[in-house]
Fold these 2 entries.
Entry 1:
Amino acid sequence: MYGQIFKEQPFDFTKHSTIGCGGVAKQAFYPKNEEETRFLLDKQPNGWVAVGNMSNVLPSDDGTDKTVICTKKLTEIQPSEDTVYVSAGVTSGALLRFMRDEGYGGAEFLAGIPCTVGGILYMNGGAGGKYIAELVDRVRIVRGGEILNLPANECEYFYKNSVFMRTNDFILGGNLRLKKAKKEDIEKSIKSWLDKRAHLPKGKSMGCVFKNPAGYSAGELIEKTGLKGLRIGGAKVSELHANFILNDKNATAREITSLIAIIKNAVYAQYGILLEEEIRYLK
Ligand SMILES: Cc1cc2nc3c(=O)[nH]c(=O)nc-3n(C[C@H](O)[C@H](O)[C@H](O)COP(=O)(O)OP(=O)(O)OC[C@H]3O[C@@H](n4cnc5c(N)ncnc54)[C@H](O)[C@@H]3O)c2cc1C
């Protein structure tokens, strides 16, 4: 049986996204378990879009006709013999607390990434050369109304890319290969990952806007074209890290998109390299 499913009407992207812009979706649902999720996915005449913490999405100023399915109430963490099942809505902070309290290591590089596990499994996110794909044993999804456990080798993981970008799968969670470790070591490792991020810009952003082209740093290429600090309306290229666009004065998605186009043109004109967005457009 289904309990009452929490619904938000409308769902305002400016309040929910880390970049703080965009229009609204007419409605969002927050399923608490797999049955509720599967039920909801099947019932949306205009389609659906899954969101976690909305930290890597640029929502359109026009909002969306789709129903938002937010994973934040899917919060199960279940250790088994050789893996730990982590539901899509578990945040990096909650997973790291579990790891520290229960003595599991391996995913400390997630410290400071403002993600949910569903979002990072979709994006194949990571830090310092480590990516979530390295820990994935299988990903549990809803595909065409069926629940499947997709083995890692079918997730088509490569740099900031996954099969989920090319399918319409809803990620319910993933089995991660975390290893038993000493609590002090885990704590130390989390702290050192957090220290490495201390220089990153603060404020409303989506993190890195562009992927690093093979052999280059997107941030360095943008910096060398002299675009640090460039502003359009309320959006500007961070002075600290040129791969970050900040919304510091009620920027619209259109202003951010214009800035993205200027950056791509300038880097292409100077280096012949076409930058590819890491962020996902939500419309
Ligand atoms: C300050 C800052 C620092 C950051 N640093 C890093 C970093 O170091 N490394 C890094 O990799 N990223 C970084 N990011 C980007 C971002 O945090 C990651 O990409 C993260 O994985 C996104 O997770 P999310 O839960 O916010 O996903 P969302 O932004 O909500 O979603 C991202 C995409 O995944 C899809 N999606 C989300 N959940 C599901 C689901 N359950 N099923 C199907 N599709 C789903 C969405 O539709 C969307 O297309 C940073 C962002 C910010 C704002």
Entry 2:
Amino acid sequence: MEAEKIWMDGKLVNWNDAKVHVLTHALHYGSGVFEGIRAYKTEQGTAVFRLKDHVDRLFNSAKILRMDIPYTKEEITKAIKETIKVNKLDSCYIRPLVYRGFKKLGLNPFTCPVQVMIAAWEWGAYLGEEALAKGIKAIISSWQRSHINSTSAKAKICGNYINSIFANMEAVESGVEEAILLDSNGYVAEGPGENIFWVKDGIVFTPPLTSVLEGITRKTVIKIASDMNFKIKEEFIARDVLYLADEAFFAGSAAELTPIREIDHHSIGSGSRGPVSKQLQEKLFNVFKGKEKQYNAWLDFVT
Ligand SMILES: Cc1ncc(COP(=O)(O)O)c(C=O)c1O
């Protein structure tokens, strides 16, 4: 994982020189917001998937955390494309971060400057190539998603991810690839960095947005699944509904569409990637790669 340049506060700096002061506010308190975006190689060149939606969400996250980004959306969009281009990447993961820098340490963030960095690098399947084809094992985490009055689920705030890291560590140390978090009412919420879907009797389900991130992949899956004539429902469910589902999968920019074949030692459906997951996954990858012309408005070409 390395590329040549990182965009930092308006300048492209060498990868190894992209440094911050150790008293950076965000380093101590998690006072930053970020995005995770992918660009894919298509026949017409490299295309960033749903870039506008990601930039909009970055600005919304910053608004919730009371940070005025010192650049316009157009400037951030341009900088993202420039970072991909300068690193000569044709398929990559992009990580913009807006964070409180260093001026004066203490909880009050308002004295610290708002800084921006954008990195991009080549990154394959988040949970491994085999995961995409065969599915992964997951556990229900003993950590629950933060209560809606503890933090904002709408914002991709750096500090929120400690909750995700607890869940991920528990999964890894339990010998499975990923965790599933319940919300503070005990209903299924999402993965540490992915939304969750399940399929029962041909209907595609996902939890409502109350305590989960409004995923751009979630939105995409809902749109393409409904265009493929699947019925979609948002439901609060207990974990046992997942155990009895015909299929389950994670959806996210990093995880793309990763089937879940086992949860808490229960085989899900046939115990491998199910037919609906496969159909949606194939469609989604074709959309990413510009092979489904009707969705090409979601592709932002790096020219
Ligand atoms: C907690 C959480 N849920 C869901 C997602 C999926 O969102 P998206 O599809 O926009 O990447 C992410 C990743 O950004 C996430 O961090």
